[in-house]
Each structure stands twice: as C-alpha cells, then as structure tokens.
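Subject: Sanity check before I submit

Could someone independently write out the structure tokens for this chain? I want to compare against mine line by line before I put it in a report. The sequence has 648 residues.
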Amino acid sequence: MDQDVTADEGVVRSLSLAQTLLHQWPRGLTRKQLFNRVEQYVTLQRELEQLSGAALERKKEARDKSFTRDKRMLIDIGIPVEETGEGEEIRYRISPQNYGLAPLELTPAEQLALQRAELFSSDRSLGGLGHALWALAASDSAQDAGQGTGGSLTGATLHSAIGTDTEVQRLISLSSLGMGRPVSFEYTSRGRSQPRRRRVVPLGMGIRQHWYLFAHDLDAAGQRIFRLDRIRYSPEKIAARRLNPEEAEVVEAISSGQMYADFDAEAQLNSLDAHYREQAVAEGALRAHTGQPTEHGKLVTATPQNSRLDNQAARTERVINMISLLLARPEGVEPSRLMAQYGISADQLHRDLLSIHQLSTAGFGLGPSVDVQPAPPLTSQEFEQQYLPTDEPITLWMGDDRAQTSLQRPVSLTKPGALSLLITLQALIEYELAAEDHLREAAESLRHKVLEIAPASIAEAAASLVITRPADQRAVADQLQGAIEGRYAVELNYADAAGTESQRVVDPVHLVFHGPFSYLRAWCHRAVGERYFRLDRIGGLTSLTQQHQSEQAAELSRQHGNHTPEVPRTEDSIEVVLRFSPSAAAEAELYRPEKSTTDPDTGARTIQTHFSSQQAVVEVCLRAGGDIELLRPESLRAEIRRRAAEAL
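---
Independent answer below. Compare away.
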C-alpha cells in the first residue's frame, strides 16, 4: 500500500534546526554550516546546484527566507536562539541551560489550586489544557500539595466543557489574533441560510450560556455582538493595506483607547436578551415544519467536529512540546492521551508522529539520533486500524544525553494551552472557590503568574474575558454545592425535556458545565441510578440536611473523568433525524449525534440521534424557533405544527 500520510516538512525543518543547535552548544554553527548539516536545508542546497542565473538567485532568496522564518518561529515559541559574531561569520546557538519553560516556583496553595483546576476540567475539553497543566505541575512538591494550605483537593464541580467545541476553537483563534486588531470571518446570523463576511475589531469576549464576541463592526460603523458558534471558519487577520484611511483611523483609535475606553464586557453580557419573543419562536417553528422535510445528504457515522486549522508555528510549538512529554515519560504515553492532551485529531497525531520520527535522520549523524517506538505507519489505514486500536504507549529515545535532558523540558504552555488554563482558573474562581478565600487567592495569584508568561495576545485576550453564571442559576448552584460538600440529600421539583414535572430525592455528586448548560450529577433515589439534571429546569429545591449521602452516591463521587450528560436509552426512546440551520449547526454536538452530514454550501448540519420520548423532541423543536427542524419521523412534524399554531 502506497504512503498517503507525510510528515510536516516545515515542522521537521524547525525541529531539526533546534536539535542541531542544541547539540552544537557552546560553539554554535554559521548559516553556511547549518545549510550543510540540517537535512532539509541540505536538500535545498542540492536543488541550488542544478540552477543558474535568476532562478538560482530566487532559490537562494527562498532558502534564506526559510531559515529566517524558522529561526524566528523558534524564538516566538520560547526557544532563545543566540547570535554571536558578524556578517557571514555569525554563529547561531541554543543554550541547554536557557532552553525550556522557566519554573514558576508555585507555593503549596498555588499547587493545590492547579490540582483543583485539573479536577475541575477533568476531561481536558479545552484545547491544549492537558499540556498546560502538565507543563506547570511541580514534579515532586505537587504531590504534597494541600498539606497545611487550608484547602481541599476535592471539589464540588466537574467541568465537562465551558462552551461547545466550535466556540472554544473560535475563542482560541480570536485570542491568538489579539484584541483591538482587525479581523474578518464568515458569520451566519439567526434565520439566515448563508454566511456573510464580517470585518470587525474585537473589544472583548464573555460567556453567558454561549460565548459572545463584542466588537466594532467596520462595515456597520458601530458595536455589534456575535455568537462564536455562528462563526463558520477560523477568523483571519486583516492586513493594514486592506483598510481604507477612515477604517485605519478607527482601528488606531480603538487600539489607543480613544474609542471604547469605558467598554464593559460584563455589562454587555448582562444586557443580552437570552429569550426571543414567544410569537417569533412559534412562527419560526411553524415555518420550519410546514411543507416537505428539507433534503439532506447521506448520513454517515458521526465523528467529533474539529475545524481548528493550525498554522506552522502552532504545529511546531505543539510537536516540540509533545517531544518533551515523551522524553519525560520513559514508560511511554498512549496515543489516546496525546490526542486528548493536545486537543488534536487522529490524522493530526499521525502527522505529528511522522514529523518526530523523521528527526531520526536529521543532521546526517552530526546530531543526536531519535527513535520512536512503535514507529508510526506510513498509511492512514494502518494507523487507524492497527496502530490506534492497540493504544500502545509511545516511547521516544534520543542518542544524546545533553539534548535529551534539555528537550524533555516543555518550552511553553502553547497558545491554546495558556488560554485554556487561564479560562479554567477564572471559571474555577467564579464557580467553585467563592467560599474558599485562601484557595481563591491562590488561584488568582496563579492566574497572574500564568498571564506573565503567556504570549502577549493571549494575555490581552484573557484579561478581556468575562465568565459569569446566570443570576437565576447562581442561588441554585450555591445550594447544591453546599449539599455536595455537606454530603446530604436534596429534594427537587424538576421538569424534564418533555416538560413533565416530577418531585424526587437525589444525592448531589457534582456540578457539570457542558456547553451552554449547567447540570447536577446525582444519584437519583426514584430512578435508582445516576442521572443528570439541568439547573435551569429545577423549579424548586429543598435541602435535606439530616439525610446523609448514600453509598452509591459516594461511589459516584470517586469516579472522575469525562462526565458528559447523555440521554439513557429506554423502551420509550425514539430515533430522530434533525436538521440544524447554518446559524445553529454547532449546537448539533450537544445532542450526541450518532450519524451526521454537513451541507458544504450552507454549513447546515443534519444528525441522527435519540430522545427519551416523542414529547421531548417536540419541545426541543418548538423552543428552537425554526433553528432545529425535525425531518424524521414525519408523523411528529404535524404535532409540532399544531403546537406552534396554538401558540400563535
């Protein structure tokens, strides 16, 4: 079978350059020597030998630009490339002592706050968070964190995801580009079938069920609000030359603080109207379910949506940090953990491993050799059908002790990792540590230290983020948190997805934040099993302080990991096919799709999934106001039309 997956040449070239310069410390190498020793540059040199005249000069210029770009990339991700000498005799070198992320010297309380952040985000849903947590963790002293700090290692909250995958990806992209700098993106407003290009200057971001971007719209000449999950592709930077003089003046005024000096993201969040008029919602639902169901493409087995497109700098930063993790873990790291730790797909992991594996020939024996085991296969079929299913730990060995000692230190938190950690710490402070003064102060101190070492654009964006809980859920969450910490039962008045009300006694175990919704994870005495209850559906709550937590609930509380709310299958469950309009396509992931398809022209998404009952399906489609159309079973479309017409 022919090779169909290759290493990333740009990543390999940058890594080979870093590896060679580390190996040649302290003397270093000139540019000419590097061109004759680093394999990827040697290949370019051979191509030069076949050229002459103008073609030769163009190729030389391209080679020199490539070297300058690679060197700058290493510096940008935290690897100091030193230069000594002048002219053609400038020597480049990397000091093993200065390589890697400098330790933050965390206090015991800050170490405990870091561990609470790890527990709070137990499924690593934010891209790069696993790496950032590992990079900051103190290897020895962290094991004793919590001793004498006045805090507890266990928390009441398990955070599954602060925002949908799409929202988090857009959040990271916008933060990397920076606040106050013009960007463009395709945006699908509610009710529209096609996205429209928007050009804006970001002012801040915040979460209130969904993530929102507050920005100055250059075309509308005023402030606008955008939901991140309605941005179709990753935002792009707008070059200064593409702005007219008036727009350039506006951007400068925003950057200098002359415009929007008093901008308050939290006030903007509080002003959001989370509910559309009932009549408009009913009209939208009726319109979507009148006539024949919308046609769609073939449904195929659903895979997690991951539309993040990394540039070469991000890929290089991730791979060099992946090398540090593998070198620091001689027992190996499973492929599944690498994908979770860095928030990447199987395809991207395959390319990353091939890039690392290709370093085995870097330097033609003049640098340290690299050995990856088990070696990644050259075809996607072998990787998916043989390599991944075994999940055998991957080990990395380097034939140079000095280089290995240096390279096993992480070079950065990565941009996604730094932002994810800052978001997690801010959410931890807001959601869980309100009553733990000592730990809250430690988490705030830790967040300040992370801000100091984060890239400037990430630190700036993180400072503009607003994370608050809806006021109507805050009291409920606080009461439930008290029950979790006190280990006693509560009585709920609860309305399920179908609107059916019930009264039940439950033992609260954790609070879970998943996408736009907050849940209580509990042992339900009525269902005799684990259940999730949406906080916004709890109509009444009574604390039963004399009824202690059951043994079943205690066992659940010891089970950490990925606790994503799911609808259990029962004899009343119903299979459905739903179409999510372009503006709501990202929300499809919240309904646990089993099969799906996406319209390549509009971005609308159709999924197959199951609901607990017919009534639950009807209620969801009615509340969506036309953003969700039930395609099958067709018999329920008539019921949705009838209910929507009654509401009008």
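---
OP: Matches mine. For the report I'm noting this point. Residues 53-76 form the longest helix (24 residues).
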